[in-house]
TrEMBL record, chains A, B:
GO MF term set: metal ion binding; protein serine/threonine phosphatase activity
Enzyme Commission (EC) number: 3.1.3.16
Domain PPM-type phosphatase residues, every copy: 62-295
Enzymatic reactions: O-phospho-L-seryl-[protein] + H2O = L-seryl-[protein] + phosphate; O-phospho-L-threonyl-[protein] + H2O = L-threonyl-[protein] + phosphate
Protein name (record): Protein phosphatase
InterPro entries: PPM-type-like_dom_sf, PPM-type_phosphatase-like_dom, PPTC7
PROSITE patterns: PPM_2
UniProt record similarity statement: Belongs to the PP2C family.
Organism: Olea europaea subsp. europaea
GO cellular component, one term: chloroplast
SUPFAM superfamilies per the UniProt record, alphabetical: PP2C-like (SSF81606)
Record PANTHER family: PROTEIN PHOSPHATASE 2C (PTHR12320), PROTEIN PHOSPHATASE 2C 26-RELATED (PTHR12320:SF60)
Amino acid sequence: MESPLFKLCSSISCTKTFLQPISTVNSPKLHSINKRKKLVCSAPSDSNSVCSGGGVFLSIGTHLIPHPNKVEKGGEDAFFISSYKGGVIAVADGVSGWAERDVNPALFSRELMAHASNLVEDEEVQYDPRTLIKKAHAATSSTGSATAIVAMLERNGTMKIANVGDCGLHVVRKGQIVFSTSPQEHYFDCPYQLSSEAVGQTYLDATVTTVEIMEGDTVVMGSDGLFDNVFAREIISVVGSYNNSADAAKALANLAYDHSQNSKFDSPYSQEARARDFDVPWWKKIMGMKLTGMK
Amino acid sequence: MESPLFKLCSSISCTKTFLQPISTVNSPKLHSINKRKKLVCSAPSDSNSVCSGGGVFLSIGTHLIPHPNKVEKGGEDAFFISSYKGGVIAVADGVSGWAERDVNPALFSRELMAHASNLVEDEEVQYDPRTLIKKAHAATSSTGSATAIVAMLERNGTMKIANVGDCGLHVVRKGQIVFSTSPQEHYFDCPYQLSSEAVGQTYLDATVTTVEIMEGDTVVMGSDGLFDNVFAREIISVVGSYNNSADAAKALANLAYDHSQNSKFDSPYSQEARARDFDVPWWKKIMGMKLTGMK
C-alpha cells in the first residue's frame, strides 16, 4: 500500500483553522421519504475572505508508507515538494505491472519526480504544471511508466493542477471537500500513465484544472494507495482532527495502510469494483477473500 | 424532480466524437484479491489536441422537467445560456423550503438567472463567473434563496466555473468523467445558497474552478435533481449514446425523472443518505417507503 501524502494549508496573516462538519444527527426532517431542501441556517459568509495576492503559501506535511512487499526497494511511489512561489507539490506512482518484465517500477517514477523538481523554476515551464510534466517526462530515460499529478500554487491563491492517471487531490474547506480531481483510466486498474513506451500517454492527456484556494483550506494529495483505501468522509474527519500538517499526513497514511491490511474493510476500491461488476470469485469469497485496494 | 440540464460540446474544425468506455469484461486479472495496476494498452495520445485559441464554442442542448407537484408554477429551477465568447451556461435551483413561508421558491431563482443573463457582457463582470454571481445576486429583489452554478468558456478552451450549493457540472472525455464540481452544504439537504436574507451565502462562498476543455468533450450541467437521481456511470453511458446535444439532454433529464419516480431505484441520493446514517425509519421501510432523491 503506497501512500505519499501531502497536507497543505494556506496560512497567511490569520490563524489557520480547521472546521468540523456541522452535525445533522438531530435534524428532524431527515426521515422524510422525499428530499426537501432546507433554508440556510449558517452565519453570514463575510468571514470567508479569498486569499489575497502575495499572501498565500503552503504549510506542508508528508508521509509515505511503501507496500509491505516493496519495503526493501522503498516502494514505487515518488514525490517532491518545492517552496517556489506559493509552493509546488507532486506525486508519481510507478506502475507495478513492470515488475512482470523484471523492471523495477520505482525507477521511472523516481526519475520523473527528480527531473520535475529540478525543472520547477525553468523559464520554459513558466509555472505551468502541464509543461512541467512535459519536460520532466522528456528528460526521463528509465524504462517504465507512472501516473503523476503536479499542483502549483500562485501567491494569489490560484492552484493549477495537471493530472495523468489515478493519483488525486482534494481541497477540504470548512469540513467538506470543495474540489477533487478525477482519475483517468483506460479500463479497471489500467490508469493513464506517462511511459517510456510509445503507447503511453503524454502531457497532452493531462487533465488541467485550477481551483481558487481560500484561507484555511487543506489540500490532500496522494497516490491511489490513499484514495482506494480511505473514504472522503474519513479524510475530512482526519483533517479536522489535526492542526499540524505532518501529524495529519501521517494519520491519513496510517489509516490507508490499516484499511489495506484489514480483509474485513469494505474499501472505496472494493465498492467501486462491485459497482462495475468486478469482484472475487465465489469460491474465494468462501475462503474469506475479497477484492481490496491493498497494493 | 427538477433537472434543467445542458449538454455542451466543443466542436471546432474536426468532427465531434463521443467515445464509449473501454470494455473490461474479459480482463483476466480482475479477480485478483490484490489490486495490481496494468500497463497502458491504448493508442498513442497524439490524437488528443487541446482546443486551440479562437476555436472553441459550445453546442448546447437543454431539457427541464419540473417536479410533478410544481408543474403549474413551472418548477423552481431556472437557467440561461449565452453564446457570448465560447458560451455561458448557468443553472439556479430555488430552495423549496420557502414554500413553507408562502413564498414561491421559483421567483428568486428566475430573477437571479434573468439578471445574470443580462449581465454577461457587463464591463465589470469581465467574463468572471463569480463576479457575475455577485452582480446578479445584488440585483435580485425577490424573497427567497437558490443554489447556483455559472460556467463561462473562453475561446481558448478554458472553462471557468463558480458554484454555490449543490448544482453541478461534469466534463465527460473519452467515456469517462475527467472533471466534476463538488457540492457545498451546511448539513444534509441544506445546501449553500444565495439568499434574500442576511444569513445566506454570497459570491465569496462560491467554489471557483477552471478546467481546460478539449476537442470532443461533453459538459453536463444540472441541478441536484439530476445528480441525486442519475449515477455518473449512467451519465457517461447516455452521453456516449447520442451525437445530438438536445437528444442527450432530454434523455438524461428523462432518466433522472424516471429514477425519481421509481420507489425501487436505489439512487445516488439514497446511497449517500445511508452512508451518512440517514434513512427512513424501520416502520416506513415495512410500508415500502425509502429515502429518495425525488423532490
